[in-house]
Amino acid sequence: MKLLFDFFPILLFFLAYKLYDIYAATLVAIAASCVQVTFAWFSTRRVEPMHLVTLVLIIVFGGLTLILKDELFIKWKPTVVNWLFGLAFLASQLFGRRTLIERMMRNNLALPGAIWRRLNLSWALFFLVLGGVNLFVVYTFDTDTWVNFKLFGMLGLTLVFVIIQSFYLSRYMIEAKTEK
Description:
Helix content is 86%, strand content 0%. It is mostly helical. α2 packs antiparallel against α3, α4 (72-94) runs antiparallel to α6 (113-140) and α6 packs antiparallel against α7.
């Protein structure tokens, strides 16, 4: 259910694009992100930082797309989001006692510090590379291809990355169980 909630604006963007055009899809994505954050606030009295960052960026980049009638702005938004997340993971690697990934997952996993750092660095690099891949698609292919990549390509790459990490982490999860 959380996955659907997280991808709600992207799914609506995709549908609006297929039914209308990039500008209608951008407007729908802005509205869906506003609904997403509002719903989260009223149901839990908190909003995840990822949703807030995405909301601000969709308003800024989506707004520029609509005002200037230039779809390049909305196409840059996923890159900016991914690069910000990548930089946040990198910064946590350098500053603070715990990495960002450890703060997010420490209640579910018991890992040695070196593994947390390696895991955090892999997420940072993944986000940075994904942002670059988005730009490659933006400047190499047409808008139809980019919209499909935004939904299926980015989601697919993320799922593959998570599966690979699961295999990597499985050996440490077994060790953590046998040590107790």
